Amino acid sequence: MSLKRLPGELTEQEELSSMIRVNHAGEYGAKRIYEGQLAALKGSSCVPTIKHMKDQEQVHLDYFSNELVNRRIRPTLLSPLWHAGGFLLGYATGFLGEKVAMACTVAVEDVIDQHYEEQEERLKTFKAPEQDLKNKIAQFRAEELEHKETGLHHGAEDTPGYKLLTTGIKNITKLAIFLSKRL
Ligand SMILES: [Fe+2]
Ligand SMILES: [Fe+2]
């Protein structure tokens, strides 16, 4: 006899699909943030640093794009919003200056670090081994933490209103994650 699932309870497969969908959305949003910052910060000394982070986001994004195709998972319905919203967040923070751009990176990566950590813990409880996925999440998480360190190293915390700004960006990022898990 199979146990009846409670409403709102996901199977392992459904949960995996949701994880890959939200990670794909997040990595896409991250890439768009850096694209927006690069558009606003042309000629700034931090361009190579931001480009390097953007290239890493592209690797993360390519991995989850492939997983979407291979596992036949549909992308989030909110993709157009992350396309525009990510770029806008990047452009606005870049427009306000290098340090504001770096504060944005610190805020976003802080939330992503927690998000990947939660997934790592969750995946440990799964019956399916999913070793490759676990390895990639661990690798990407380490790189997101590097981005956060880079932001701090470039004076993110010197931004006027740092606390308010990063709290706002963290809340936007959390909302984006919340919605992309569900839509
Ligand atoms: Fe990433
Ligand atoms: Fe990142």
Give the fraction of residues assigned to helices: over 70%
What is the number of E strands?
A: 0
Shape: elongated
Q: Which regions contain 5 or more consecutive residues with pLDDT less than 50?
A: none
CATH class: Mainly Alpha
**CA-based gyration radius:** 17 Å
| Discrete helix count | 6
Strand content range: under 5%
Oligomer: single chain
| Integer average pLDDT | 92
How does the helix and strand content classify structurally?
A: mainly alpha
Features of this protein?
183 residues; mainly alpha; Ferritin; 6 helices; 0% strand; elongated; binds fe (ii) ion
What is this structure's SSE topology?
Layout: H1 12-40, H2 47-70, H3 79-95, H4 98-124, H5 131-153, H6 162-182
One fe (ii) ion (FE2) is lined by residues 27, 30, 57, 60, 140, 144.
Could you characterize what this model shows?
The protein has 183 residues and is mainly α. The protein has one domain (13-182): Ferritin (Up-down Bundle), CATH 1.20.1260. The protein has six helices and no strands. The chain is elongated. The two termini are 32 Å apart. One fe (ii) ion binds next to α1, α2 and α5.
Briefly say what this structure is.
The chain is mainly alpha-helical and 183 residues long. The chain has a single domain, classed as Up-down Bundle (Ferritin). The protein contains 6 helices and no strands.
